Amino acid sequence: MSEVAGKVCVVTGAASGIGRALALDLAGRGAKLALSDVDSIGLAKTVRQVEALGAEVKSDHLDVAEREAVLAYADAVAAHFGKVHQVYNNAGVAFQGEVERSQFADIERIIDVDFWGVVNGTKAFLPHLIASGDGHIVNISSVFGLVSLPGQNAYNAAKFAVRGFTESLRQEMLVAKHPVKVTCVHPGGIKTAIARSAGAPEGDDRVAYAEFFDKRLARTTPEDAARTIVNGVRKGKARVLVGADARFIDAFVRILGPGYQRVVATIAARTFPKATKEQTR
């Protein structure tokens, strides 16, 4: 048991990865859970696992990009449990592709889910969190909310936006003296399926990127990530960096400033020379 024992915690994107790990970690600490995802099969598996730990669970199919659905969902969760204490806006999708080759629809989908999904969840639940007298909003950005990479333009845009939105929100809660804490989370490489399921422009070799991510970048397990996040929330941290790589990148960008961009571009050109040449024809 811990400070979350008995509290109502909302986790979006709970069917797999960090979302499922968060649900299990919170269940193990005695929380009541409201879990959602567009993947009903994966969500059902998560529900079975947290129920086995004795958690009270409400599960729903939810696309966080659908604003009216999120607004109705927040009211339904509050009505079901009576209160809402913590919201983990975790749901997200990925896309790997250069601006020149990406379609508007590709970029729009990432912004709709990864940024507007966070805004929708925040706006929908904020009144309930204030009313609880002990609220906490946890918005999952990314290490790509700290550093930009070639081919990650849409994801970078969304995750940088989540960071700015969340940091401003935290300040607003402090100014208004509302009983709501706010945390922005920046996971590094996590061993999930996000790279393998990422979209890409037609003709791009997304398999090569996914293999590179899985073998070279994904160092932290979802379970370790969830533990770090929940512990950071328990301590009321404004920012939580998940993984040694996230801490390194944070320092790397701070030290080099804008100069980091040329360094990253040079590394990317050497790492994916074939893809770079083909994509610039």
From TrEMBL:
Keywords, alphabetical: Oxidoreductase
Any one GO molecular-function label of the UniProt entry: oxidoreductase activity
SUPFAM superfamilies found in the cross-reference section: NAD(P)-binding Rossmann-fold domains
Sequence similarity: Belongs to the short-chain dehydrogenases/reductases (SDR) family.
UniProt name for this protein: SDR family NAD(P)-dependent oxidoreductase
Organism: Rhodococcus spongiicola
